[in-house]
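Sequence design from tokenized structure. All designs in this work follow the same two-part layout: the structure record, then the generated sequence. An example of the structure record is given first.
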């Protein structure tokens, strides 16, 4: 009986270590990121990296098509000014996103319509999201899908920053 209690205690103590998830990016998990890119984290052509303490990058290659999600979160001394600097990159085509962080804006990056970016602010943090595809006619990442998926990632990131 004594050994049984000791075994149960050891199992309960070690269980959290055994169930520890790989948390490469603190703002979005790998399963969600790769789901946005149209694959799973187990795919041999999917890769994730933490470029720096403030940048996470997820890439999926399917044949000659490359899809990428890049999330950057920076703590700013003057977050409103930093956000406005990023927001200026959108120009007049910026689309304000409601109920995402303190404020957020989305716009196309480049003229080909194959990349969408979101700039947002949550408290003292300014975040950027870049979602792109290399194919002009990517059926999974059409222009509308890029917009929708970038908005969903922005919701996820801002929610994790609160």
């Amino acid at each position: 009986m004594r050994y049984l209690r000791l075994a149960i205690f050891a199992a309960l103590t070690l269980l959290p270590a055994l169930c520890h998830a790989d948390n490469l990016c603190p703002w979005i998990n790998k399963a969600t990121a790769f789901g946005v890119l149209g694959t799973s984290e187990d795919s041999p052509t999917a890769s994730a990296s933490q470029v720096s303490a403030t940048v996470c990058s997820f890439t999926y290659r399917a044949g000659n098509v490359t899809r990428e999600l890049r999330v950057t979160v920076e703590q700013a001394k003057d977050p409103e000014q930093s956000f406005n600097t990023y927001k200026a990159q959108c120009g007049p085509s910026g689309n304000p996103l409601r109920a995402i962080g303190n404020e957020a804006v989305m716009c196309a990056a480049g003229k080909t319509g194959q990349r969408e970016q979101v700039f947002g602010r949550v408290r003292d943090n300014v975040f950027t999201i870049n979602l792109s595809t290399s194919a002009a006619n990517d059926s999974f990442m059409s222009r509308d899908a890029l917009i929708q998926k970038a908005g969903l990632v922005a919701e996820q990131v801002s929610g994790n920053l609160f």
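The two ends are 47 Å apart (CA to CA). We note this feature because it recurs in several other targets discussed in the main text.
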